[in-house]
Amino acid sequence: MNLNESFLTALDSLMANKLRAALTMLGVIIGVAAVIALLSLGNGVNESITGEISSIGTNLISVMPDRENSGGYPPLSTADVEALSDPLRAPAISQVAASVQGGQEVIYSGASVNTTVLGVTANYFEVNNMTEFQSGDGLNQNDLDTSARVVVLGAGAASDLFPEEYPISKSIKINGVSYEVIGVLEESGSAMGNTDDNIYLPLSTAQKRLYPDRTRSGERAVSGINVQAASEELAEAAQEQITEVLRDQHDIIYAADDDFTILSQAELLDVFDTITATMTAFLGSIAGISLVVGGIGIMNIMLVSVTERTREIGIRKAIGALKRDILAQFLIESVVLSLVGGLLGISLGWLISSVAGNMLGVPTVMDGGTVLLSSGFAAAIGLIFGIYPAWRAAGLQPIEALRYE
Amino acid sequence: MIEMRNITKTYEMGTQAVHALRGVDLRIEEGEFLAIMGPSGSGKSTLMNIIGCLDTPTGGSYSLDDVDVSQMSDDDLARIRNKRVGFVFQQYNLLSRTTAVKQVALPLMYAGVGRRERIRRAQEALQAVGLGDRMDHRPDELSGGQQQRAAIARALVTQPSIILADEPTGNLDTSSGEEILEIFKELNAQDITVIFVTHDPEVAEYAKRTVLLRDGLIESDKQNGHKRTMEHAS
Fold this sequence. Notes:
The structure holds two protein chains of two kinds.
Chain A: H1 3-16, H2 18-56, E1 60-65, H3 78-85, E2 93-108, E3 111-120, H4 124-127, E4 133-136, H5 141-145, E5 150-153, H6 155-161, E6 171-174, E7 177-185, E8 199-202, H7 203-209, E9 224-229, H8 235-250, E10 260-264, H9 265-308, H10 310-318, H11 323-360, H12 368-394, H13 398-403
Parallel strand pairs in A: 3-8, 5-7
Antiparallel strand pairs in A: 1-9, 1-10, 2-3, 2-6, 2-9, 4-7, 5-8, 6-7
Helix pairs in contact in A: 1-11, 2-9, 2-11, 2-12, 3-8, 9-11, 9-12, 11-12
Chain B: E1 2-13, E2 16-28, E3 33-37, H1 44-51, E4 59-64, E5 67-68, H2 74-84, E6 85-88, H3 100-111, H4 115-128, H5 144-156, E7 162-166, H6 174-189, E8 193-197, H7 201-204, E9 209-214, E10 217-223, H8 224-233
Parallel strand pairs in B: 3-8, 3-9, 6-7, 7-8
Antiparallel strand pairs in B: 1-2, 1-4, 4-5, 9-10
Helix pairs in contact in B: 3-4, 3-5, 4-5, 5-6
């Protein structure tokens, strides 16, 4: 008997018990769907983060304060920013942007919004790749020099405060002081850390009116410094120069006393890659366990089915079925169960991941590898867990099988 | 031709050994019509299963058409059952969810005959046993006699040299049973060896030769025609 005949015979007996076949398949369907959904969501998150970080550019370096080593004072200051901007002291650096930030209540004609308000240098938008404006413009050096009372709104903040009005030239109130809106940023569509609700004003203005903190030595404090290296190749050199300049500025001798942390985009990329890869592998293996459970379900049902059909097996053997004919019939049954379950699981998993991705605002990436892997895995499960029942069926003695009631 | 010498069969029932056959010598020529009789536990079904290669003897030698089958592998026995032997059981032993025509075509599938050819031959076999109008019926849609005729068609479809029947009329009323026996008679007239097991002497009368088993041994072996004439004579 050829494989084609075995296949039709197997299909016949599956069709004879549709409900049982469907329920048996359910285990595999859920397992494969879980694997597919979690892997494609994981891949999607990973890809979007990676894409965002690389789009900012791997020559971007962030300097963050480490307050534990500064006696509770904010360690970074406007003077540090100026020192880093000096091409003689840090030649590998092309631009230095700084910011100071906090939460504020922002009011426009009765509507009030609690959001993050940042004081930034004029080049902050350029360095952080926020150069698209819905309307108006960013801050310029003159705004900083004069500590102008002007603000740039994130797209979300603008639509919250001005649902029906054109925001440019309107005046909003932060902490009792009026500011003129001069620009609205384009939506960033960012998945990591939503900056659309932020409001930006000149660093000098913010330091004077909102965040008057000073460092231990009495300098105006900043809460973060973004440095752009002159090129990607110079990113490492820039990192060293930042360390050198800041230690010099803060009179630090030992690395353990550093009151700042330096994080480059390249390092950030590595960190995120590791995190998402670990998460994906972790979730994937949990889903994989459910696949194995589904496989055990198949084995269970196939064993029941062999016992139930002992007499049928006896009849088939009596009229000339070989061991391999019976083996093939039962093995094909379990592989068909798991493979069809696998294919349905892929569709379900795709559905789940696109719905979940939509709700979470995360793109889903379902690559051919994932599909191939899980359908191959499903088929393998059917084969592995089908072997024992099929082997039991094939090994039955016809005379005993015929006597079975 | 069937040739058995000193066939024994011992079963292990727990710790006890049951001697179903204790040394049977039997020779059956091609084209014979034979009834195996005996009380229950006499070993007649065991003998029948060994003749049909469903079971293997514990000792002795058995050659079927000059081939020694007593020590063959399971798969070789399966091939012999498929090609040379047709079985008819008391319980009909049809596949419950399968239509008559597919049922009858099944041995041909295991013989590797193509789909169209085996359906054609299955239809022929069903017509031969008078089930031409029941081809697409499932067993539960057939009467007992019709089921047994379908089973005969399935036994016949591979054109075996031997038809083996274990109590073929045991579950049937008298008239259906007679129909079945008439079919066997016709088959025997076409030179097919027909062997059946029965405990009913009237049924055994249909055969030309009767072998009587008792306690795993052959007690008597008679030609029925001869017996009948003797009765008339006395």
